[in-house]
Predict the 3D structure of the following.
Amino acid sequence: MSVEALLLSLRLACTVAALLLLLALPLAYWLAFTAWRGKFLAEALVALPLVLPPTVLGFYALVALGPRGVLGKLWEGLFGHPLAFTFTGLVLASMLYSFPFAVQPLVNSFESLDRRVLDASSMLGASRMRSFFRIIVPLAWPGVVTGVVLSFAHTLGEFGVVLMVGGNLEGITRTVSIDIYDRVQALDYVGANQTALFLLVVSFAVLSVVYGVNRRVWSPWSGR
C-alpha cells in the first residue's frame, strides 16, 4: 500500500469534509425551514451528483476548472497557475461530488426538530444565530456527524472524478483509489488487495459510526 497515496487521500477527505460542513449547514437550514415553493429545484440540484455518472460530473468539472473554463481562467489570473490537475482542483471537484452526502442528512435532522422549541427560543429573545448554534445544531447532532462522516468516506474512495480532474500525478493527485487501479493494471494483486482491504475496513468503521450515532449510542450531549 502506498503511504503517500493514503496520506494524500486522507488529507483530501478531511479538507472536503470540513469545507462541506461549513457550506452544508446554512444551506440545509434554509432547505429545511424555507417556505419557498420552488425549493424542490434546489433540492434536485443538490441531489444531482447522486444520479450523474462520476465521469460525466468529472468531465464538466474539468471543463470548468480547465484553462478555458470560468473558474480556471479566474484562478490562473489570480494565482498564475492552472487549477486542473492540482490538489486544489481535486478539493473543489470532490466537494461537488460529495455535496449531497453532507447536505441531505442535515436537512433530515433539521426537519425532524420540534418547531415549538425554536418558537420558544425566539419568544425568549434569542437571535436566529444564537438559536442555530445553541439549539438547532446540538439537537441535530446525529445529522451533523452523519454528513461529515459520509462526505469523508465518499471522498476517500472516489475514483472517476479524481481521475478526470486530477489525473494520476504522484504526490499531487494520486489517491488510494487510483493506486488500486494502477496496481491492478500492473497485475500487482497483492498490493491492490492490501489497499482495497484498508478501504473496506474504513468503510465498515464509517457505517458503524453513522448507525451508532443515529441510534443515539453516543452523543456529546448525552452525558455518557
Notes: Residues 100 and 185 are 32 Å apart (CA to CA).
